[in-house]
Amino acid sequence: MLKIHNLHATVADKPILKGLSLTINAGEIHAIMGPNGAGKSTLGYTLAGRPGYEVTEGAAQLNGVDLLALAPHERAAAGLFLGFQYPVEIPGVSFLQFLREAANAQRLGRGEPTLSGGAFLKLAREKAALLQMDMEMLKRPVNVGFSGGEKKRAEMVQMGILDPALAILDETDSGLDIDALRICGEGINAIMRRPDKAVLLITHYQRLLDVVRPDFVHVLSGGRIVRSGGPELALELEEQGYEAVAA
Amino acid sequence: MNALALPTRHDEAYRYSDLDALAGVWPVAREVLRVPAGEAAARAIVISGEAAVARHLLVDLAPGATCDLSLLNLAERFGRIAVEVRLDAGARFTLGAAQIGGGEATLEIVTEVTHAAPDAVSRQTLRSVLAGAATGSYLGKVVVARGANGTDAAQSVRAMLLSRGATANAKPELEIEADDVKCAHGCAVGELDAGALFYLASRGLPPASAKRLMLQAFLAEAFAGAAEEEALSGKALERLEALL
Ligand SMILES: Nc1ncnc2c1ncn2[C@@H]1O[C@H](COP(=O)(O)OP(=O)(O)O)[C@@H](O)[C@H]1O
Ligand SMILES: [Mg+2]
Question: How many separate domains does chain B show?
């Protein structure tokens, strides 16, 4: 599904990713943990193609497609979804309006038929219900006036509507109370735990991993994966801290 | 001032104008809109196309009269709309204006709103979207005459630049000779938020669609609640799509 080989990336001329390699197969859920400033968000932004994040070396493929050669919207059409650590507020543009255009732009990009207004609304209603989010909120401007938890739930609704092959979820659990954490975690399972999909969870906490159980856990430090293991690695990290485990 | 003499660069209201283009349409006829006491009027002016266009509107509001004016300046070369408004006691004037230009267009909206008597209200909202090497200017003078106490005047002026070569001039100006007056103006020139554009792109929206959505939202502020809101937004969108 995702093959990252020796990825180097700079932000404002500062090297952040320094030779990161990672392979994720279809049907797998991986977690990346690591200290603040390790480069976790940079990995997500670089794969999604955020301007200002320059790849200086290495390769990244999604289902055989060279991600790094594509514009951000083409990467989405290729099946990539990035759940933002800090979802952006966009005054005056409603969720439903932009998501319908985005979903159909993706479909056109893949040569698939577009969704009618009715079919789109039905899909949106279904995913909003899954994340226990009031449909009325999706008529509002993107993320404007949403609480931290509402923003993260809205990210998951978007993921459900766009139906990606691979989701990179950047600290979806931060800022969530216990109920919202469970709703988001179960949403991720419902939408993404399938043989033809994969997830890369970026998180600091075991509590999300108790709901969305990872198959593999990696420690990112200094711009590289310094350790990989099974779910027990997350428990070890929680007990001993990054420094002891990454050393 | 002699209304027939061609203005020069030294005339404040023409400092950013395209005087050569203006010469071709000079003199500009004054159109007059008088609203009798207690009555309400709504008017929309749209200018577009390759020919140079200049309009000049005088609005006279009797006591308690209201006027909603919408302006849409889409001229492709030179478009100027000047509006002089005189408000009598308790009158209300609302202006929603947008100008959208690319290429070498020179677009201007020039207003002079005089609160001549107490307790009148004026609201001016101006939004400009400028691409290519276009220049968009707003000169907005608010005059509060002696004795026009209780005046409430507000101007909200914002411009969005889509390219390095585009220019926005915004010059709100206040002349106050009364007491107990509330005058507010906000002025901002900016570019589309790169973080928001990336967020939209990451969901699969092509760059032109992402920009269009954000600019539609930006321009909607000018026409919110206008009688011809839908028609004006439709025309603005058509011009935006041609520029993106
Ligand atoms: N826009 C930016 N400009 C300059 N430095 C940045 C920028 N974004 C991130 N960085 C730097 O990149 C490093 C990695 O940041 P980030 O990927 O956000 O870490 P993490 O998500 O693991 O906490 C940090 O040292 C941070 O200061
Ligand atoms: Mg981060």
Answer: 1
